[in-house]
């Protein structure tokens, strides 16, 4: 079942990546060889290692601690599919957005929390690299699942997904995770269709799109999160900007593309994909 979720997102990313290539969105330094390398390494590892490991770990822990709950909520999706699906999406997005916010937040004052936060920061940092330090890099759909290997194991929303699967919410997991994955991928494609509506000559179109941007996250909003500037700690949610607006205070709605994408790669080693993907520099955890 999990393979269908992964396959649907992979097909979308492959088609969007082909469009980016044919449209010239990867040329002239917009995407580096390290970007391509990280996309391959992270995607293969996620499909072949992290997700299977999380499925196994969740099932093993469940059968060890609460075996009586395995499949115990299957009846719930049969009786209340749409309300449960909505609840699944709301909770999963809240967990993801909260952990993402934690990865970008200011340094925690508590030593244990600071240690944990730095692990999240190290885990998430590779996701914000675009191109090289020349400032020509841009966002690309293949960046959707580019993270440090550690990130997938510490993100609470992934554990939540597979706990729901263990509890028997199979169809909820399938539809909810596929929808969220596809929306997140669509927000990383190098397009900005939402700007057409935000800058439309008719005021009611502009106002409607502006209102929708308070509920759902659209590509340009997420692109500004990937920018090198004031908005790089804004728009934390991949799907529901409602949380950015009402909970995190991180909503940013712009009417033009970012002027510069990607974080500066400060260390020489960060130009190496294996360092980006595997290294945990304990000196950064002080």
From TrEMBL:
It comes from the Bacteria. Keywords: Membrane, Transmembrane, Transmembrane helix. The chain crosses the membrane at residues 6-24, 36-60, 80-103, 158-183. This is Sterol desaturase.
């Amino acid at each position: 079942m999990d393979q269908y979720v992964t396959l649907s997102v992979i097909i979308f990313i492959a088609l969007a990546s082909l469009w980016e290539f044919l449209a010239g969105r990867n040329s002239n330094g917009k995407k580096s060889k390290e970007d391509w390398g990280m996309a391959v390494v992270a995607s293969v590892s996620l499909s072949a290692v992290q997700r299977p490991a999380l499925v196994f770990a969740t099932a093993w822990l469940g059968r060890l601690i609460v075996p009586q709950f395995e499949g115990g909520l299957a009846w719930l999706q049969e009786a209340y599919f749409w309300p449960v699906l909505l609840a699944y999406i709301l909770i999963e997005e809240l967990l993801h957005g909260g952990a993402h916010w934690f990865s970008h937040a200011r340094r925690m004052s508590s030593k244990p929390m600071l240690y944990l936060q730095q692990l999240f920061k190290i885990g998430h940092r590779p996701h914000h690299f675009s191109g090289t330090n020349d400032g020509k890099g841009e966002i690309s759909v293949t960046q959707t699942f580019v993270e440090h290997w550690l990130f997938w194991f510490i993100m609470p929303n992934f554990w939540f997904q597979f706990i729901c699967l263990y509890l028997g919410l199979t169809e909820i997991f399938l539809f909810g995770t596929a929808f969220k994955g596809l929306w997140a991928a669509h927000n990383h494609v190098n397009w900005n269709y939402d700007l057409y509506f935000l800058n439309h000559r008719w005021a009611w179109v502009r106002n409607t799109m502006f209102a929708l941007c308070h509920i759902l996250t659209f590509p340009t909003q997420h692109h500004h999160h990937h920018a090198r500037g004031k908005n790089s700690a804004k728009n934390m949610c991949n799907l529901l900007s409602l949380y950015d607006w009402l909970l995190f205070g991180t909503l940013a709605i712009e009417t033009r593309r970012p002027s510069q994408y990607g974080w500066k790669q400060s260390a020489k080693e960060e130009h190496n994909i294996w360092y980006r993907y595997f290294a945990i520099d304990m000196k950064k955890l002080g």
